[in-house]
Amino acid sequence: MAGLRDGDRLIGVVRPPSMLATKFSFCLWWLGGGVLTWGHRDAEVGCLRESLQQVLHVRSSWETFTATLLDGRIITWGGFPGFGGADFQEKLRSAIQVQEADVAVAAILADGSVIAAGDEEKGGDCSEVQDQLQEVQELWATGGAFAALLRDERIVTWGDPGCGATSEVLRNVKQVKATGGAFAFLLAGGAVIAQGDPEYGGDCAAVQDRLQNVQQLAATDKSFAAVLSDNSIVTWGSLPDDTNEVPAMLSQQVKSMCSTGGAFAALQMDGSIIAWGSPKCGGDSSNVQEQLRNVEEVCGTDRAFATLLTDGRVVTWGDPEWGGDSRHVQEQLVHVQQLKATLGAFAALTADGALVAWGKPHYGGDCTAIEDEVKKL
């Protein structure tokens, strides 16, 4: 090689893999390398393995993974719902995001446009708003409607009005959250608009006067929570019957919010955690509260939370079968650098490249099938 002489030293920088998750599966990918997946069989790369090399970036959505290769090609794989014809299914293979409602699917194509298929009344037909669906950045779905965020921070929705669709175009939207039947939109001025099924949080009229200066939103299956600039919390929708008392005020500013199917967790700026909601879904962290110090990040399955501490340890609580009990892998959970969750399992990647997973096996809680491959890389 030009400029090199015998005896010169070369320094190579080895980048660790990055980890992502969909609702059923996990993915490890290497910059300039390939990918490994585990969990639901739909996530297996199979015949795509040879194509999924020289990876530049991978992103995940609710059902699928999308890889951008160094040569510019886009490959999407995962749990494609069987809507639309062969041509539609082929387009999904090169979509940059695929989002699924109960009986419909929508996808963002490389040019920023959107395609949809499935039950026309439940989001499978976007023809009425097709001319507005340009430069789309991200999609969200309830059970029967879709919301698209455009580059200029407008929101366009379509599908069932009872699930959050409306003809009104919202502007200056900073954050979007979705339950099973409603959307909540945080606007630039700190106000919130909710639309959809009231049982799922689609009506916030009862708390509208309190929804001012909102900083962050979070959503469970049927409810929303908003954190205000004064650290107070406002919730609406349908909370589980066994919900713990919702804290009126947090002691610190909130760094981030996380949710399971029936509980919320707020990571405060001092590294502490406040959880509320159904104890069955992680709403009671009292058994591990003393360990919840210096928390760096928090993530959740459908019924459990896991936190990554600054010293690389992991603390979990919630339903044991859904990842809330990590005692059997605790000795392996040291110097953890990445922590991710599917609906039913957690996975952690340590500083020495070890992969640890726990929770429901068919949600990715068992990574033994790829452990040998990970060690070789």
From TrEMBL:
Extract the Gene3D superfamilies matched here.
Answer: Regulator of chromosome condensation 1/beta-lactamase-inhibitor protein II
Checking InterPro entries in the record gives:
Ran_GTPase-activating, RCC1/BLIP-II
Q: Which residues form the signal peptide?
A: none
Matches recorded under SUPFAM superfamilies: RCC1/BLIP-II
Its protein name is HERC1 protein
Lineage per the UniProt record: Eukaryota, Sar, Alveolata, Dinophyceae, Suessiales
Which gene holds the coding sequence for this protein? HERC1
